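User: Batch of two.

Assistant: Item 1 of 2:
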Amino acid sequence: MEWLNRMLSEPYYFFHFLAFFSYFIVRSSAASVLFPHTIYHLFRREIQAVLAFSVLAVVKMAREESWEDFIANTLFYAKVLLLGISLIIDYHLALWYAVVFLVIYILTQQPAFQKLGTSSRLTPLQLEAFLTEGKTTRFWLVEFRALCSSTCIRASRCLPELSITYSNKNLSFGIVDLGLFPNAAEKFGISLSGSMGQLPTYILFENAAEVNRFPEFSFEGNLPNPPITKVIPNEILLYLIQSLMLGIIWSFLFHL
């Protein structure tokens, strides 16, 4: 029921559902006007498309690190296969579906993972207060994201799930939305440009000082506040950073 409610309430899922469901209506209508050999050829291609989609979905399910990434990739495969099948019926139908998917891409956005685990959504002022007041946990692992980035959406599940396993009195998790607070990007040395590959950025703080980040700081004097770096004293915290790194790397390697 939760997924059904989400599919009906989220425009991204709802419009995709309508687009794919419309094929069955078009298919039943086309059966009365197509030649028998064309219908037979179309039926064979439909079976091949279903088998190909099933294989790709199983492979992606075994390889993906997050459900959001799996949904994005399976929808992409389904759209490609639907366009291919539509070409058999009529190229005008394929063109129509291409326009529909383009409009969906422009007007809607895939929702990010909504649950927080034990992590907290923070404003830059709240983060600064937690880091400097000295009365909270010693370490903070903070994800800086912007939900206009598809990479951030695909990785949006990683930090909440890590927080459930590793959160304790010495380690807290936080999320800062750079889409809402773009000025914080410059303060923490993060580029909002998608070509720089800096989204999302994970920074580990110890007592208000940055001890590590992923991806690494790669600018040379372009930003006014370069990060403070020192050796991580705790192997478990290093493991957390590495886990996040592997999640993002897997997402890139198997995106296609």
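Item 2 of 2:
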Amino acid sequence: MIMEIEEVSDCEALPLLSLNHVSLLCRSVWDSVRFYEDVLGFVLIKRPSSFNFNGAWLYNYGIGIHLIENPSIDDFDTVTEPRPINPKDNHISFQCTDVALVKRRLEDMGMRYVTAVVEDDGTRVDQVFFHDPDGYMIELCNCENIPIIPLYSCSFKPRMGSFKRAAASTCGFLETVMMESLSTDMLNFSF
């Protein structure tokens, strides 16, 4: 599902088109290249020859991954054991077509992963989280199941004298609760 979000502010937004690439520091470019090729299906592409540092560029699915080798990356990280797989940690997320197949393939490769489920108004999203060789979190999901609804399009009509659940709107429960919370916070700030 592709959706354009209308500009609603008075400020002119920057002329962005899309996400171009993600750049990651890695201990070994070739270990990371193998991971992104073998596990995620990226393809190694030509990188500008003017770079005077070891790295690699990969591309697929309309996005690039730029790897920059930094063997001393461990000098900046005091953690010596693998980080826990935490869905609330920073991560890169990729849309996938079959979450069950993802889990089977990760198991076949002996990779550790955790799963999570997001549900909203009868919609279910399955997520699979795992690490690349340098501990960066990767998520594969079927997130297209969740409709993209800008919050400003959600109608918020509190009942007179009450900030309890608003009347039925085009948005889900979470958006209504967020609007109620924002309204309550605004009232608290005004006094």
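Residues 79-151 form a domain with the 2,3-Dihydroxybiphenyl 1,2-Dioxygenase; domain 1 fold (CATH 3.10.180.10).
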